[in-house]
Amino acid sequence: MMLRILACAILLFSATVLSQNVATLRKQAALDQEVTTEPIANEITNDLKVSRNYPMQPPIIPHNIRDYQIDLNVNTCLACHSRRKVTNTQATMVSVTHYMDRDGNFLAAVSPRRYFCTQCHVSQTDAAPLVGNSFVDVKELMAVSKNENE
Questions:
Q1: How far apart are CA 1 and CA 25, in angstroms?
Q2: Whose C-alpha in 30, 31, 65, 133 is 20 to 30 A from the C-alpha of 48?
Q3: Coiled-coil ranges per the record (predicted)?
């Protein structure tokens, strides 16, 4: 008897949740249904660095990387950004933290755990945000606080 009541409660709860209009990036399409996607945003390729929004944020890539190869055999990023190449290319050098292993020892080459650049770094685009964001930079909060105290 108790099992039947529990099963009915689960079914009722599931029907209630599934009948709600939950906003998703799939726009109400069923999971087994093909959805046309928005076109890919244009990469911003002006080579101007964008300021970071918070401490330790990985820098955003200020140039096109569409055909870059990053796999076990090749990392195109390091053709310009490795320690040995930056003098000739004038590119920003990979952070020294990328040459450290997990124990803090310095290595001669980029650490395997930092080798796949696009795990953390992304290209700038002119894409509109997919979801809302109420993030406020700490500098802005400090400025507001300072103005209120004056």
A1: 41
A2: 133
A3: none
Tell me if 8 is assigned to a ligand binding site: no
Q: Is 77 annotated as a binding residue?
A: yes
Question: Any binding-site annotation on 108?
Answer: no
115 is in an annotated binding site: no
Query: Which homologous superfamily is 42-127+135-150 in?
Result: Flavocytochrome C3; Chain A (1.10.1130.10)
**124 marked as part of a ligand binding site:** no
Query: What is the average pLDDT score of the chain?
Result: 82
- Say what the pLDDT of residue 11 is: 72
Judge whether 117 is annotated as a binding position.
yes
